[in-house]
């Protein structure tokens, strides 16, 4: 009897660790490339030890055979990866917005090493993503992400089969929302560029001898940086709000974005 109880307890911790480990390997603030994988797994273990007693009544009993056991563990790992991938997709809004912004101000070829992704990225994207990582920790948004992982057990029940179609639809829907958010962040630059080129077109008509193409790019870059300085606070506020709303909508039943 005692051995059966110990096996049940161990099974519960392993099941929770599978979901927490998969999620924390990808979630913003936790799953960055600069954070060693071992540190992420240790954090997942610490979270598992803390929350398993709170959600033990929601976990299924030990399956009878090795096949169902493996299927349940893999399913929980995939749920964690799905949740982490959704969070990472929302975080990459800034990468998408930075690329759009650079295209609007005429510096689309300006790239730099992005330490969060261990790859080359748009310079503005690197700046926005680094700032967002700090803001996530400073505003306790990372606690909301962890809380969401706990709440996810009410929506993603380990005892139920894995609804692949619903998860795919949720990922596609989130991607469309992320694209829309990135465009909204880029809207001031689109408007400023349109106004600039309309003004240059009028000048070209009024002063045909003026070589507009020689002054267009410097003016576009200068105006772009002025607009960037003005709207960076609004971009970061919008990002944190959207991340919190989309995350709540995903992991908490009945909460809209």
From TrEMBL:
It comes from the Bacteria. Its main location: membrane. The keyword Acyltransferase does not apply. Keywords: Bacterial flagellum, Cell membrane, Cell projection, Cilium, Flagellum, Membrane, Transmembrane, Transmembrane helix. It is found in: Cell membrane; Bacterial flagellum basal body. It is a multi-pass membrane protein. The chain crosses the membrane at residues 12-30, 42-59, 65-86, 124-146, 181-204, 210-239. Belongs to the FliR/MopE/SpaR family. This is Flagellar biosynthetic protein FliR.
């Amino acid at each position: 009897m005692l051995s059966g109880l110990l096996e049940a307890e161990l099974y519960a911790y392993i099941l929770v660790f599978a979901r927490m480990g998969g999620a924390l390997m990808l979630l913003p603030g936790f799953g960055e490339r600069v954070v060693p994988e071992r540190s992420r797994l240790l954090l997942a273990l610490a979270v598992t030890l803390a929350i398993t007693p709170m959600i033990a009544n929601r976990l299924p009993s030990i399956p009878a055979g090795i096949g169902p056991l493996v299927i349940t563990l893999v399913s929980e790992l995939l749920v964690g990866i799905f949740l982490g991938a959704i969070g990472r997709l929302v975080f990459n809004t800034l990468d998408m917005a930075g690329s759009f912004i650079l295209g609007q101000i005429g510096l689309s070829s300006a790239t730099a090493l992005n330490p969060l992704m261990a790859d080359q990225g748009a310079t503005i994207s690197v700046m926005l993503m680094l700032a967002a990582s700090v803001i996530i920790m400073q505003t306790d948004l990372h606690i909301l992400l962890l809380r969401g992982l706990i709440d996810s057990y009410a929506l993603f029940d380990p005892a139920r089969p894995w609804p692949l179609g619903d998860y795919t639809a949720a990922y596609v829907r989130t991607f469309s929302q992320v694209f829309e958010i990135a465009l909204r962040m880029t809207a001031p630059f689109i408007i400023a560029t349109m106004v600039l080129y309309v003004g240059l077109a009028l000048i070209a008509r009024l002063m045909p001898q003026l070589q507009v193409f020689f002054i267009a790019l410097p003016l576009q870059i200068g105006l772009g940086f002025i607009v960037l300085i003005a709207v960076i606070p609004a971009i970061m506020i919008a990002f944190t709000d959207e991340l919190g709303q989309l995350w709540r909508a995903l992991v908490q039943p009945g909460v809209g974005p």
